[in-house]
Design goal:
heterodimer; A: alpha/beta; Rossmann fold; 2 domains; seven-stranded mixed beta sheet; five-stranded mixed beta sheet; 13 helices; 14 strands; about 20% strand; globular; B: alpha/beta; five-stranded parallel beta sheet; two-stranded antiparallel ribbon; 10 helices; 7 strands; binds thiamine diphosphate; binds magnesium ion
Amino acid sequence: MEKIATREAYGKALVKLGAQNPQVVVLDADLSKSTKTNNFQKVYPERFFNMGIAEQNMIGTAAGFAIAGKIPFASTFAVFATGRAFEQIRNSIAYSRLNVKIAATHAGLTVGEDGASHQAILDISLMRSLPDMTVLVPCDGVEAEQAVFAAAAMDGPVYIRLGRSAVPILHAGGDRFAIGKGEELRQGADVSLLACGIMVAEALKAAEELEAEGVSARVLNIASIKPLDVETIVKAARETGAIVTAEEHSIIGGLGSAVAEVLAEHCPVPMERVGIKDVFGESGKPQELLDKYGLTAKDIKAAAYRVIKKK
Amino acid sequence: MEQMIGESELHTTARQIRRDIITMLLEAGSGHPGGSLSAVEILTYLYFREMKVDPADPQWPGRDRFILSKGHAGPALFSVLAERGFFPREELLTFRKIDSRLQGHPDMRKTPGVEMSTGSLGQGFSVANGIALAGKLDKKDYRVFLMLGDGEIEEGQVWEASMAAAHYKLDNLTAFLDHNGLQIDGPVTEVMSPEPVADKFKAFGWEVVKIDGHSFPEIRQAIDHAKKTQGKPTMIIAETVKGRGVSFMENEAGWHGAAPNREQAEKALAELV
Ligand SMILES: Cc1ncc(C[n+]2csc(CCOP(=O)(O)OP(=O)(O)O)c2C)c(N)n1
Ligand SMILES: [Mg+2]
């Protein structure tokens, strides 16, 4: 299967977007080679602003660009974008609903060797709690590009979560992606696997293995964490009666929490959250980390059997 | 010079704005008088003599922009905006009350003429940079004015923003430092001294001017100097008196964030005639 990191797709998408829309400007904080905003810099140097290692000022500057009618994309590692500059995002962007797109890379454990200091495992939680913030977690390169265009097309703050490592391409091209919509990748009746980001591919793998063992698993790609597709999630809960969520993020505050909130209010069914279990990560190869922290198809499958038993 | 800028008229306006600040705070029962009163002359000059703005069309794209990074001085900004015709003066009495367009700290989504929501210190500076950068990119000739508190500049973000403004040669950005010497817990030099501020901003690559922040002619000269300065932003260090114009509030840290009671307000208004 063809693979590309969502950050790579982001860098390419920015260049296309820049050609279409002269209002797009890009800011980075000395990580443009890693976030891939350097693609944009090469083609549109006058619209690229390196703000140095000063994330708080980068976020505030992006807010100013938005006030002046630009569509700023601000990028750095997810841990710094959402952590170091959280209060700037809250007060200078979200509170005024400014049209700033925060596209943060190196989310989750698959940062790998750099270790826990660089692994964003709380970013979805932080961004999701902000009023008026849209939160997107694309699962592959195709969806990442579509998320970038969808973010640029809407007026308001958007957080786009991107990864470092190459991930399989699960989508054909075409204008499929819609903010606020979940996507059914596989039909199923016994259990629903709701995943985002790199865990979507794992959920599909788990569903295939489950099918071989006689269990029919539905797979939903929840790239739009906020707004959340409540209807599709409730329908999955009603029709399959058991839910497993899977994310490369803490089980506190991310996709699992968001889905649990929906189920608790609309359709309580047995559920399990596959994710990072309220601990920090560590150094290691991405795959080693996913294995160690329980973020694989195998873990999703085990969780599926447990929730089915509770039905 | 005095006649050129209509100084006596400006003094009359400034007095009215000080009266409005006192009245608003009395009515609200809370708010920040000290840092509002120290900023009155600068704000009055900007909105009545300097900035191209259109109260009937607050979002007019060609307008000059002002960002009150020390957002707690909102009462001064609101009074000036009302006096300038952005919204009715009677509305000042709704300040800090439920459903009001005049929030405890400036809110760009609620108040006509407010350019940016502020209140969290240090953040307005970066936003001003962004607007100035966009102006340069679009080759627009609007100017961006910014006001910072002297306690506010203890924030790390201020120095990130200072570095960036000089790096990007933002000569369309003019900042005022309301150098009133006080923050909440006492004198700025005792709490966490940012001095020598002039040297610091110079070292960061800024043009630096020092003025009496209550003198209209000096404010004008400093702005004129800033407009002539090319290739770098200008910091106007305005020596001011916190609580200026109300004798018992002047230079008193205690009046940073306390509203006057009726008796105190009457005493203050009696001085502001
Ligand atoms: C980030 C942040 N920290 C703390 C505060 C609380 N606060 C409000 S005003 C103030 C003191 C400001 O002093 P200064 O900048 O000198 O303002 P001025 O004297 O002009 O009123 C503080 C600490 C705040 N508003 N924002
Ligand atoms: Mg002060």
